[in-house]
Structures are given as structure tokens and as C-alpha cells.
Write a structure and sequence with these properties.
Layout lengths: L8 H19 L2 E2 H8 L3 H13 L3 E4 L13 E4 L5 E7 L3 E8 L4 E8 L7 H16 L8 E8 L2 E3 L4 E5 L4 E4 L1 H9 L5 E5 H12 L8 E6 L3 E7 L2 E2 L31 H4 L1 H7 L7 H12 L3 H25 L3 E6 L1 H19 L2 H4 L3 E3 L7 H16 L5 H10 L1
Parallel strand pairs: 4-7, 7-11, 12-15, 15-16
Antiparallel strand pairs: 1-3, 2-3, 4-5, 5-6, 8-9, 9-10, 12-13, 13-14
Helix pairs in contact: 1-3, 2-3, 4-5, 6-13, 8-10, 9-10, 10-11
This protein binds zinc ion.
Length: about 400
């Protein structure tokens, strides 16, 4: 007789608990009847799963006020506002944003700290995050428990080990960020690190402009240019987690030198340095970039030309992505979102001219549904993943539930 791996009842239950909690997390509060339909399970099974999640301190149940008393009350299941939360962190070249995000994607507290010079070293950055984590914890109810940490970084990240292989604009190489943060925040905490564009794609797919779309590219362009790719509903990661480096597709071997060691990469044509250079501005910072966009809007000829040039190259880049990946949507985030707002016609024209017609007809170019928060929200989703996979096994949640008994 062939040996099969039997699935044990507790594994089925764990799987269903994760599915149910995942639905509440993504969609917000739902009635038991809606959960029954969504999961295709019977009412009593749903009732048992909800009770488990209530006792784990993750969700709460209530009967909405003002319902017809004659009818059977339909319980509403909602994320518990004082329940477990994750710390989502976005490390940027100029700032660190930290936020407490609860189940349902609600941001409960948020702190933004500018960084420059010495403040960009791994030691200084992890120290600042630990400080922000304390500040945030002090603003939450005592019953809220931190269950994990997700960090977005502008660089290539080994997803299995959380090591930043190369963060050019932070000047980081081989930084074991997950380990460094665990040492600062408490070794029992699960710390996950991801590339900012990958996390932007994840968040836009789950909660933003790409909900319901399974073939999506998120182009994140500011100082650097990165990409996150969702193909057939799954994140394209590559063997080491480094896939999606759209900014380093080579356009011209005789083009400007790039920090990656090559020449004429897309980043050197559409990154913020290229925009500022074209606008005749030597300094680089968020104010200077915002200044170019403001001047372009007011009709300043040099600024208009600079944005137009970047838009032209952006359109050509997107045409290549359309041909290679045949996506339903390309979401353009970071400061490139402003280029899209100002010069959409130029970008669309370039895609029309250069993408193959079959793929061109099915793609739309969008700005992020989550505004400038895509990568931060993506970091929170990364931190929630292990709890959503096995809510009953999550040690902090079990501890929390026992302390409430
Ligand atoms: Zn490059």
C-alpha cells in the first residue's frame, strides 16, 4: 500500500483558522454568515473557529445595534482594536517611518524621523527603530502585544536571512539587518526584511490599486528605481529574493555610470538624480525634487523639459515591462508617481509606440492606491504572514490569551 501523509484534524483546523483570520485581516469586519460563504464551511465550524480566535485575543464579536429583534442575530466578527499588532518600518534614504499596524491593516500609531549622515549607519538606524518602537508602544493600550516586525529597505535583500546585500543609497553592503534588529528589540521577535518595491507590490495587491489583479508590477522610483512583480498572484522573487531590479536594465552601454557597476542603467535616466541634473540643479533632497515638480506645473521651461525627458524614458521602460510580463496593471510609485501625474500623455504615447499590441491593450498604468504608504503597509503584511499561517501556534498570542484567562 502506498504511504500517504495523512492530514491530521488539528492541521485542518489550523489551516482554517488562518484562512478565517486572513479574511478578517484583508476585508475588515464580516458577519458569520459572510464568513460561512467565503470559506465554504458550515455554520458550526465557523462558530468554533471564531471562538478560538476570540480566546486567542485576535478578534472580537458583537451584534450590531438596531437589528430586527425577530430575526436571528448575525454576529459580526471584527479585528480586535487592542489586539496584537506588528511594527512596520520603512527605512528610506532621508527618513525612517515606524508604525504600529493592527489586524485589518489599521495604523494605530506612527512616527517619522529624518535621518542624514551618521544617522544612516546600521547601528544608528536600528537604534532609532528601537527608540521609535518604545515611543509607539507607549501610545497603545496595555493589552496590545507586539507580535512581529516587518522592515522595508531600499536595496537588495536576502529574504531568507534578512541580510541587506546592497543598499546603494544607504551605502550598506552585507548588513544583517534582521539579526541586528532582533538583538535590539528582543530575540523572541520575528523580524522580516523586504525590498521596498517588492513590499509596495504586495501591499497594492492586497489593499491598494491592484486588489483583484493577479499580474501587477509596482515600479518604485525615487533616488533609486526598483520593481516588485506579482505574476499569476505570486510574488516573483528569484532564487535569492533579488528579482525585480528594473532600475538596472541597461539602456545604453555608453550611458552614465551606475552605482551597480554598469553604465546607462534605467535608473540613471529616470531616477531623481537624472531629473535634477536635467533641471540644472546640483543639490539633491526631497525639497529640490518637489521644487522641480512645482516649477514644471508653473510652466518653467527647463523644469517642464526635465520632467518630459524623464517621462519619455519612463514610458519606454514601461513598454519593455509590458512586453516581458504582460501585466494587467503597472503601478508607478515614489516620486515617479508625480512624473506620471504631470506627463501621463507622454508616458502612454511611448507605451503605445513600443509595446506589442496584444499586451498593450490589456494594461493600465496607475498611481498607488495607498499613496506614499505602499512599502510601509507591505512591511506590515510581511510581519503578519507567519501569524496568519498558524494563529494557534503563535507563541506570543498564546501567552497573551493565557494571561487574559
Ligand atoms: Zn545599474
Amino acid at each position: 500500500m502506498a504511504r500517504t501523509s495523512a492530514v491530521r484534524p488539528e492541521e485542518i483546523r489550523r489551516h482554517n483558522l488562518g484562512l478565517l483570520l486572513g479574511e478578517i485581516h484583508r476585508r475588515g469586519e464580516l458577519t458569520r454568515a459572510e464568513l460561512t460563504t467565503l470559506l465554504g464551511l458550515n455554520r458550526s465550524t465557523i462558530g468554533g473557529l471564531v471562538s478560538d480566535l476570540v480566546s486567542l485575543g485576535m478578534v472580537t464579536e458583537y451584534v450590531p445595534a438596531g437589528r430586527d429583534r425577530a430575526g436571528r442575530p448575525s454576529y459580526v466578527v471584527a479585528p480586535r482594536p487592542d489586539g496584537p499588532y506588528v511594527l512596520a518600518v520603512e527605512i528610506d534614504v532621508e527618513r525612517i517611518v515606524s508604525a504600529a499596524v493592527g489586524l485589518g491593516g489599521t495604523v494605530h500609531a506612527r512616527r517619522e524621523t529624518p535621518i542624514e549622515g551618521d544617522g544612516r549607519t546600521p547601528d544608528a538606524v536600528t537604534g532609532q527603530i528601537a527608540c521609535d518602537a518604545d515611543w509607539i508602544a507607549g501610545r497603545l493600550p496595555a493589552s496590545s502585544v507586539l507580535i512581529g516586525v516587518g522592515v522595508s529597505v531600499p536595496g537588495t535583500v536576502g529574504r531568507e536571512n534578512g541580510v541587506i546585500e546592497h543598499g546603494p543609497n544607504l551605502e550598506w553592503r552585507g548588513v544583517p539587518l534582521a539579526d541586528l534588529l532582533s538583538a535590539r528589540l528582543g530575540a523572541q521577535l520575528d523580524v522580516q526584511v523586504g525590498n521596498d518595491a517588492d513590499l509596495g507590490a504586495l501591499a497594492e495587491h492586497l489593499r491598494g490599486a491592484a486588489v483583484g489583479l493577479d499580474n501587477v508590477i509596482f515600479v518604485n522610483g525615487s533616488v533609486g528605481v526598483g520593481g516588485g512583480i506579482i505574476a499569476d498572484g505570486n510574488q516573483l522573487r528569484g532564487v535569492g529574493g533579488y528579482a525585480g531590479e528594473i532600475g538596472h536594465i541597461m539602456l545604453n552601454p555608453d550611458g552614465p555610470p551606475c552605482h551597480c557597476g554598469s553604465n546607462g542603467c534605467i535608473e540613471t535616466y529616470i531616477g531623481e538624480h537624472a531629473l535634477l541634473r536635467a533641471a540644472g540643479i546640483d543639490r539633491h533632497g526631497p525639497e529640490e525634487v518637489a521644487g522641480v515638480f512645482a516649477s514644471a506645473q508653473q510652466g518653467d521651461r527647463r523644469a517642464v523639459a526635465a520632467v518630459h525627458t524623464v517621462a519619455t524614458w519612463l514610458g519606454r521602460t514601461l513598454a519593455t515591462l509590458v512586453n516581458v510580463f504582460n501585466p494587467q496593471a503597472i503601478i508607478v510609485g515614489g516620486s515617479l508617481a508625480e512624473v506620471l501625474r504631470l506627463e501621463r500623455a507622454t508616458i502612454e504615447r511611448e507605451i503605445d509606440a513600443r509595446a506589442m499590441s496584444a499586451s498593450r491593450s490589456s494594461v493600465q498604468v496607475l498611481t498607488p492606491g495607498l499613496g506614499v504608504e505602499s512599502s510601509l503597509i507591505g512591511a506590515s503584511e510581511l510581519a503578519f504572514q507567519s501569524m496568519l499561517a498558524a494563529p494557534d501556534l503563535f507563541p506570543v498570542a498564546i501567552e497573551l490569551a493565557q494571561s487574559r484567562v
